[in-house]
Amino acid sequence: MKTARLGRAPGMGGIGITLAVAVVGFAAAARAHEHHGEGIPEGKFISDDPIDSILWTHILIQIVAWGILFPTGMVLGIIRSRWHVPVQTTGAVLAILAYFLGHAHKGRQFAPNMHAKFASAMMLVLLSQVGLGIYLKLHLERGFNGRIRPYIVKAHGIVGKIMPVLIWTQFVFGGFAALGFCFGDHTGQCLAHFIMGGAFIAYGVILTILLLVGQLWLRRTGRSQEFFDSLVIAAWGCVNTFTEHRWGGEWVGNDLQHTSMGVIWWCAGLVGIWLSRRRDGSPKRNLIPALVIILTGFGMSAHPQHLELSNHVHTMFGYTLMAAGFTRIIEISILLRDKGATTRDGSDPNSFQYLPPFLLYASGFLFMGATEEQMKLLSDAHVTHVSYILLLYSIAFVLFLFVNMLVHLYAVHAFPLGPVHKDADAAGVEANGGLAGNGHLRGDRRVRDAEEFELEGLISEDERAEDEDEDEEGKVRRNGAARA
């Protein structure tokens, strides 16, 4: 077995060295290439030239590499799929190629921007991931390497899980740079829209994960989902209370409305935290986070705007957000009757439960697409609010689909429930108060295996035999419970 592993190592090392040399070479080429910006008009941040084919190619390749391949490869790594390395390697090659193309284009010129600066940091993150991956594939497990290997595994996993957030940030910066938005006086307003809109989308993603694969984790924490929701709401409210207005200065524009929204967030968040536990300390559902979402949607739907198009988009954003809150209330109080899920393990959610997360995706995109500059650009182009809102909903559907596909890819490997095992598992869970026959929550073993990605060489034979005995004993107990 060791010989076979070492036999694969040179190939992986060769790929890694090639990628490393390519990154360094392309970075040097990028430094040599300068966007002088002589064609940028006074007071603007991009030239009037169109985006050329090279830059469009850069954009499309980066979307494929960073937006599709890397998140998919991350999930494949978690489930220890043999496709993890090929997918991530393909993504790395495409990302390096597109990085070079981004500095070789002609046509539109750009002022110094965060997208260009953040690109170098992203490539360093990519290079570090490639290096860590190569080290793990070399299977160096003796002496000093054996001692540091668990930390390398954790670092590789942490960086891989952080990358989707970094990718999202870089995509947003790319949109700013391409259109010349969010510079100068527009920076604050633009950041407010994209940070809050992105937060609603992130909340929707988290709800999707918890809905489909997170119920076992929630039960292990001993907390209800509303505890964590209310905690974040309270913290965010405190930040908004002291950042939406320059204290000591005059109240201008929508300062009072934004600040009051921050106040109600931390006040309601504290109530939600208090109501998230019963007298005996066990977790309990509550409706406070959903109510906060409804009130936020109400406030944003009545937000005064300068353009009619902006009024329509903000109103639709508020209505969508209120719908997310109302559907959440219906889910918790009517559909689930304060239970955590429709089934003991949450593996079979009701179709209605998909509505609240999706509406959060849609509301996030509506708010991110409602900045002053975007509204003026669309209004000048005579784009109607109906077509624009439908377009934003379409984007929300695409992201919702992609997240569901990734979660499904993880779930079918971490929690493989076939028709043969389903009844036995259900009987074991019911008979043990939510625990499987071996005293552990069903699926823990598979999840632990996934988290121990690349650690197989460190597990001793005695530990492996002990784990196998535990699994076998658990199967016997579950089968006995099923027969009973």
TrEMBL record:
Q: Where are the transmembrane segments?
A: 56-78, 85-104, 116-138, 158-179, 191-214, 287-304, 316-336, 352-370, 390-412
Q: Name one Pfam family in it.
A: Ytp1
**Key word Transcription present:** no
Q: Does the keyword Transit peptide apply?
A: no
Q: Acidic residues bias: where?
A: 457-473
PANTHER family with a match to the protein in the record: INTEGRAL MEMBRANE PROTEIN (AFU_ORTHOLOGUE AFUA_6G12730)-RELATED, PROTEIN YTP1
What is the protein's name according to its record?
Integral membrane protein-like protein
Organism of this sequence: Westerdykella ornata
Task: Print the organism lineage.
Answer: Eukaryota, Fungi, Dikarya, Ascomycota, Pezizomycotina
